[in-house]
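Researcher: Re-running this chain for the archive, since the previous output was lost when a drive failed. Same request as before.
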Amino acid sequence: MRWSYASQIAILPFRVITATHKFAPTRRFQNMASLSGQCPEINYLDRVSPSEDLRRVHLRTVHDTDEVFDTLLSILRKPALGQDIRYVNLDRSLAGSSIEPPALNIPREVKEEDRKLLEGAVRRAGFAGKQYGMMMNIVTHRPCDGYHGMKRTNDLMHLTQALAALIISVAPNLESLAFPEISAEFESPSECYLMLQAFLERANSNPTEIPYLQNLRDVRCLSNKNLFLSDERFYENYNLADSMKLVGNLPAVETIRADSIEDRYESIDLEPRSTNFRKVYIQGSNYSSSSIAEIIKSCRRLQEFEYSIGGRSSGDGSSPMFIARHLLDALLYHTNTLQRLEMDVDEELSEERPAYWDTHDQYMTGEDPYEKDYTEGRPTSLRDFIVMKDLWIGIKLLMDLARASISKGGSAESPMSLVEILPPNLESLCILGHTVGVNSKHDAQISLLMENRERLPFLAEITGVDACILNAKSVENPDEDVEQDDR
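Model: Regenerated structure tokens:
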């Protein structure tokens, strides 16, 4: 029996059909519209939007896993289809699951030729031994039905991880990856039964020896979306270091983003200069200065850093300790690369600051991982950021950093002047939380800065000087705020 091109397309999932037009034999068909009479499934192919093709893969529900499994088989049959995938979103967290080995027991109907394709894909993705057997068992089974709550949750967690790993392995042009907390501790890498964790750890440790994940640039940390652990009134307890360790050594990775997180129970633990992230954006969160410092130091060449608090309440009612010296010490490792800094933390800064916060730091220890980079002595001040163009910062933190800069320079008795410590090539300065007449010391420094503005010749824009730009702040009592909003 001879099959036509149209009949072959008709058996594919619709989301795969939408991507096949670019692989059609153009000498025979001038465009895909010519097939519409032979294949009803592609009648509207020329009108589908980019969001309907293979560019974006989403994994959370049972329906998602069925669709992605079909997509995976289509790619294994026609590998060129995998080149379309740019974005993978795994939205199924460990939170709320009991972390146990996979035990899916509802077989999926898989043809023998497709099973062989899956076996080859699992091996090419680096799975061997016990992990190979686990992977094959997971992807050839479906989650249990909705009457088994925790079992279904665990099944979905394992299946989404396994499918995400295989999809990534056949998507050479993948640019963006989003995921929540997906990793746990195991005695050894070979004992790991969380398939995406095992896959990413293996890739991250040997990034130049794999054909996939070579173009991944953007990483987004998702909320865990657990009813008990992710109450949107509160910051989510989230160890960002775990996510950074999974992908931070990949060759093209440059950006990581996270929102509404806090380091509630444990501090960040990252090796200095261990990640390739150049842009770090942490918004509306509740991290301590020591954790922020660890994140900054872990970057090999940091170019942009944004951090802000606000919008939620702490899960345990506490406020993290934020010491300007921690931030300055970490940022000074990147004086030759940091171009943009945004820090909105003033509402967490204490008005009554112990003197040793500027002159002695009992929290920051260990060797300087950037010592060999210094050709003219170790940098000490904001003025040492020679490539910084944009600074968005609260007035209190700016003053604290100025004091810490003077102290680090060995001139504790010298009068402080913002114009003397600001980056020399700064082009844009936004000062948050400054209200004229509230703090005479702040007013004096701002006046002095404006009078001597010509000493910063590239500074074209200063905002927040005359009209106050409000700081972000955490919510003290979310229930009380909701009650007031309802009145």
